[in-house]
Design the sequence.
């Protein structure tokens, strides 16, 4: 009777173990040497695969980070190059215009260094001269402009934005105090210069320059501008 009870308990334990796992219990089952080696190989393969996937993920993130840093560096380099160009324009354009706008070997080498084409540099010169003419007219004369700027350099401590607001405020108050009407709207105009002749006035040149500033990639307009400029009498320029 005792042996039957022990056998029943053993069967019950086996059934309970199978119920929990869904599979027959391998408790107490001994693996052969070959089976142990195969199990170890499978574990090694599993960890090797996990390691490779981790390396791929790290490599991808590293590549993305490298590309991001490269892009930032390129943007910084481009910004520094543009800053050098602007500084060069500020320092050289006035003398270039005063000396007849001729490009000598020294200037040509500097333009090549900064990757500025002679055409683009001359275009900047025309823009500079046009802007300076407007400033001279607003000041009353070139001498008056120079006197104002010399005084402002030593006596006015305002940023460009603050100076712009002060100027706009003065214009607004002047117009409204004079006739009570709002300040006239400033509008752009397109050039109607025929293609078979050059420019007849500086204002026509200014209109096309204004368009080219806004649309620097319009090659057709740039070529038309150059063609008209070539047919324009020197006295107008």
Sequence:
């Amino acid at each position: 009777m005792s042996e039957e009870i022990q056998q029943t308990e053993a069967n019950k334990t086996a059934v309970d173990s199978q119920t929990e796992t869904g599979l027959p219990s391998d408790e107490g089952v001994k693996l052969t040497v070959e089976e142990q080696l195969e199990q170890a190989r499978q574990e090694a393969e599993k960890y090797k695969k996990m390691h490779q996937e981790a390396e791929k993920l790290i490599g991808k993130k590293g590549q993305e980070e490298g590309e991001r840093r490269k892009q930032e560096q390129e943007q910084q380099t481009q910004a520094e190059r543009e800053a050098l160009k602007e500084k060069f324009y500020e320092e050289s354009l006035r003398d270039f215009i005063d000396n007849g706008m001729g490009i000598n070997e020294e200037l040509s080498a500097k333009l090549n260094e900064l990757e500025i084409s002679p055409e683009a540099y001359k275009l900047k010169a025309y823009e500079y001269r046009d802007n300076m003419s407007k400033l001279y007219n607003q000041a009353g004369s070139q001498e008056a402009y120079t006197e104002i700027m010399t005084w402002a350099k030593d006596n006015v401590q305002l940023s460009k934005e603050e100076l712009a607001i002060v100027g706009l405020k003065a214009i607004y108050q002047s117009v409204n105090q004079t006739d009570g009407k709002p300040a006239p709207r400033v509008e752009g105009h397109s050039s109607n210069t025929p293609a078979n002749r050059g420019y007849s006035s500086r204002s026509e040149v200014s209109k096309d320059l204004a368009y080219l500033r806004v649309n620097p990639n319009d090659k057709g307009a740039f070529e038309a501008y150059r063609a008209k400029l070539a047919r324009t009498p020197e006295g107008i320029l």
